[in-house]
């Protein structure tokens, strides 16, 4: 749509395509047109006020792509020829189908590291936000011509592991090991509670941690391996339900030795130094006081997160020959990652200036902040069950189907609810998670979008619709509004790609669903004189909504 406006303006305005494209605005309402061009930038060149320039240019701008062009103060408002727009947009959607909206904006190999649960701990509602965001960003990269490598990085060493193993051996040894997320999380919560009640237990945990690091206790090491496998097995089931996968899964234990080597190499390069027995990078030595002090190795020589992340960064670029690497992490890790990236730059690493953070804010409960230590969080498995049960009750109100089909639909609705609730929010804002709101079948929710899609597909089934040529006589306002929205999808994809903001796509999906429902309530499709056109429009809407939801990694349902 922009191309037609830019092409018309270029004949009379001495500006480049990019300059004109960037200056175009979308008016606040369709009554003011589809695009507006501000004439302020031309005032100096033409030596006239912007309002006069707008009136002068409006008389010259002629194209069959526009219904009309009018001056409104210092703006030129363009009203697109909606018939031509409808024909071209619908034909493009029906031809491209699942590729509609895809663009060739890059040809890079990009790694997206996301999810990052720790073994032996809960996979909770907070993890769903990072997992959903990482998968969505990966899909956006792929939809715009890039190659996305999905990576996961999990903590499987350290004090939290020692606490879990200690508690299991001392208080739960008779319980059979299993890969149920809730059971694994309960052992850790119990460990924290017992340690809080009895401070003397900490010495026992410290002893377990020492044995774990030395790997001399074969039985303990074997238990660690089995329980780590159980954690990973629990995640695999979750990731399958969340419709995400990983090309590579890294663990902290894999990068401990190379991390020590990396830290020692930094000392040789005089980037790091020994201070009171610990290995640190003091950024004031490099005129970067705001970054403070970066601790790499403890006084006992054990490696901290920083050393591990830097050696892992190099490994990623060596293994996958990446152009860029993105870390989807909590906002509280901002300073830490700035320290990592700056140290990589000082070390002239391959990963230097090619690694970036995507920071997201917290997911909180109405009661406050979540904590895996206290158990004051919502486990993924518990939350999923609540949503599935609710979805089942809603399905049973509408349909009489077998239990297996009900279960399958309910799970799709539950997962869609979770993901949409996480992705519709700007990543810079905290989410106060309201389960009732996420499960609502009305309003700006996942179930509403899925229901709208199923409604569109139901109309097409009822009409026994097959793609046919159509003609357009006249368009009413609701048809124009829907066509205009559908035509914007490629632009929405481009915006989401450039800013790495899936919430832009979520907002768009909700808006086109609202516009479609308004169209549906005002227009009869089956049996009307405009049947062929309206069915093609409904099909185009369903394709575009499905493509939008695909980029949010939300599966659709043909029937609700």
How would you sum up this structure, described in words?
With 560 residues, the chain is an alpha/beta fold. Among the domains are: 2-80, Gyrase A, domain 2; 380-551, Orthogonal Bundle (Isoleucyl-tRNA Synthetase, Domain 1), CATH 1.10.730.10. The chain has 21 helices and 14 strands. It has helices spanning 2-10, 17-23, 43-46, 50-60, 82-96, 125-143, 159-171, 181-197, 201-214, 218-241, 256-268, 305-320, 334-346, 380-398, 403-423, 435-438, 446-462, 477-487, 489-499, 502-522, 531-551; strands spanning 35-38, 66-72, 75-80, 109-113, 147-154, 248-251, 273-275, 278-282, 293-297, 324-330, 355-360, 363-365, 368-369, 431-432. The protein has a 5-stranded parallel sheet, sandwiched between helices. Helix 17 packs across helix 20 (502-522) and helix 17 (446-462) packs antiparallel against helix 21. It starts with a helix and ends in a 9-residue tail after the last helix.
